[in-house]
Write a structure and sequence with these properties.
With 141 residues, the protein is of the alpha+beta class. It has one domain. It is 13% helix and 29% strand. Strands 2-5-1-6-7-8 form a 6-stranded antiparallel sheet. Strands 3-4 form a two-stranded antiparallel sheet. The chain is globular, with a radius of gyration of 14 Å.
Length: 141
């Protein structure tokens, strides 16, 4: 059973530097990095998701996390090529690949083009580059 992430709205007690984000453990060199994060929700996909460059299909383990900028840096350093994590705070959206970082406007898809193009260049499917910030899994079943 999946834990439902909340909508990511900051509370008065949360520091302004905290970002809500989604990290897929299969996209990390060391999935144990997630153990050091504040996990606020989790979902497991169906069995038909690609997990490596060899075409292996398996489940993805998605974690909604609250992280600091330093933790985002740590996650970026541990992200595999052809994967990304994304984070949001207010109107800001941050997409982090292993080799690049894109600062976008959450509700202005016109600002997303560079991040989407980078993902396509890495071999990601267009439907995976939807960067949902509402607790959904976008096009992922």
């Amino acid at each position: 059973m999946a834990a439902e992430p909340d909508d990511g709205a900051e509370t008065v007690a949360e520091p302004a530097e905290v970002w809500r984000g989604v990290v897929i453990s299969e996209g990390l060199r060391d999935p144990m990095l997630i153990n050091g994060l504040r996990v606020v929700g989790a979902r497991i996909s169906a069995d038909d998701q690609p997990v490596d460059e060899h075409g292996t299909l398996d489940r993805w383990h998605l974690y909604w996390v609250d992280v600091t900028p330093a933790q985002i840096d740590l996650l970026q350093g541990g992200t595999l090529s052809e994967w990304y994590a994304h984070f949001w705070r207010g109107s800001q959206l941050l997409v982090v690949y292993n080799d690049a970082r894109f600062e976008l406007v959450r509700d202005d898809r016109a600002t997303w083009t560079p991040a989407i193009e980078h993902g396509l260049q890495q071999g990601l499917r267009p439907e995976w580059l939807d960067f949902p910030t509402d607790g959904s899994t976008g096009e992922l079943a």
